[in-house]
From TrEMBL:
GO terms for cellular component: periplasmic space. It comes from the Bacteria. This is Extracellular solute-binding protein. It is found in: Periplasm. Its main location: periplasm. Pfam families: SBP_bac_8.
Amino acid sequence: MPRHDTDDDCLTTGRDPVTRPTTIASAVAALALLSAPLAAQELRFTVWTGNDAHLEMLNGIAASFAEKRPGVTVNYETIPAGEYVQKLTFQLAGGNPPDLGWMFEDAMPTFVGAGAVRELTPALESAEGYDLADFSEPAMGLWKKDDAIYGVPFSTSPFMIYYNKDMFDAAGLEDPLTLAGRGEWDMDKFREVAKALSEANDAYGFEFKDGQGYDTRIMHALMPPIRAFGGFAWRDGECGFNKPEAVAAITMLHEMVFEDGSIVPPGEQGDYFSGGSAMTINQISRASKMPEAGFNWGIAPLPTGPAGASPIIGQAGLVVFSESEYPELAAEFIAHMTKKENVAVMAQFFPPARKSVLESDAFTDANALIPAEQMQNVSAAITEGTVLPSHERSPQINAAMKPRVDALWRAEADVQASLDAVCEAIQGDL
């Protein structure tokens, strides 16, 4: 092999020997720089979970990122779901922005429209082996504007009925999963068993999601029955809350609260997870709470209605905030977090948007707490379901809706008039 470290080589190659010391010094300096530890960089990552199992999983993904990015740490900051958008907005406006975070489906159009989140397309396209085509197009729809990707869904999670099997057994009732298997789990049967459960147990028959259906989870309470009856919230600038289908659905809920006494009423807490109600509606991430519940349980599809099966999907995505201190690094972490291997890890709590994971045993076997046959119901609901309503003016719509929906939850309320008031209040924002 020829040598290139002598003065003779400098002569034969036309290089000036007097430059040699400078060249060597530069090389030594470059090697020293490469071998020096990287400056510590902390990514601030907002989430709405404080669940130990979730955070352990997320920290594991952060640790695997640090293996290829030494010196980088990820600090997960929990903001409760009911306060998440408001407190996050305050952080961004107050000059204290996190680098990246979770984002609700209904808030995403607002943040994109306000320029509060960064485009992720280049980072995802350049990530080795990422395979963007593996994400289902419907699942990605909400997280794109034109052809630009602003968020990556990490959870495409349908709402399921959680039920306390012990309470069903005590009431002598077949559980929702059994009824669904025979095609008998519809809104009429849901109302019937909720009332029977309330009468047979020292508990309510049903509780809205996280007990917040009258407050921060209004849409989670209203949309399942509205869709089952064939109604809608809004579309093409038209309000659907006061249309006959939605009125029929909400009238049934109102009667279950105030006539049947089977749904936890405003001002009270049923708490399914501690045995205060026999059924609730939630996503599979909540299965992590069940080992401490102390009763036999299961999950089943939402009840069908006049419109047939109408699964409802809640999505959550990952975004990089525009004022991030480390935007490129944050985008790289999102690409790492949503590569196939890590999506398979997260699938135990968060149903994936990656088709290859959703269609594999990695998903149906992902959660040891939920039998594979019940996870197959989750897969079917993802395939057939539609995402909760979203809108660029969601904050204004929600704020306008809240007092009108509050007026609905009185025993003497006129349901049609209350829903007319909802539409009148939000029409200008649709």
